[in-house]
Amino acid sequence: MILTTSNVSGNVDLAFVDRADIKQYIGPPGPAAIYTILLSCIVELCRVRLLTGSTEDVMKYRVVAALQKVSSYSTTTSSSSTLYHISNKCQGLSGRTLRKLPFLAHSRAGFRTTPTITEFLIALDSAVDKQLLDRDHLDRNHLQKQQPLNGG
């Protein structure tokens, strides 16, 4: 049995792929998985006391998603709602990137004291925006390098 992964699946040798009996594409995590990954990182940061507060009031993804569909949305905690919106922004990011984002958020924010979960979520939201902006710039630069020069 051979198991492989690639983040450049379009460049995998077709002869190699053709020899595989079972091929399974697993894309980036969906919204529920993203929410769960980010929440698990926040739980760990609280456990090691890099964040203050309790994650017990942060709702599970299914509950928050269901409440988003109801007009009386005020029952959702602020942290749950913020994390839900951050998770939606993260769609398309790899699991590896999602696990790095909380670390980047904490280090870039330069907190002088141990932040609350609410303060950290603001930093996480900013880190996600930066990650998406950097990815867009890299994608644009990559496309420009692939396009032939006009008149040349």
Give a written overview of the molecule.
Helix 2 (31-47) crosses helix 4, helix 2 (31-47) packs across helix 5 and helix 5 crosses helix 6 (117-146). By secondary structure, the protein is mainly alpha-helical. 58% of the residues lie in helices and 0% in strands. The chain starts with 13 loop residues before the first helix and ends in a 6-residue tail after the last helix.
Oligomer: single chain
**Main β-sheet description:** none
Number of helices: 6
Radius of gyration, taken over Cα atoms and rounded to an integer in Å: 20 Å
Strand content: under 5%
Structural class: mainly alpha
- The coarse overall form would be globular
Strand and helix order: HHHHHH
Helix content: 55-70%
Q: Average pLDDT, to the nearest integer? A: 86
The tally of beta strands, per DSSP, is 0
Low-confidence stretches: none
The separation of the N and C termini measures 49 Å
Describe the structure using short key phrases:
152 residues, mainly alpha, globular
Give the SSE map:
Elements: H1 14-19, H2 31-47, H3 61-68, H4 78-89, H5 95-109, H6 117-146
Please summarize what this structure is.
This protein is an all-alpha fold and 152 residues long.
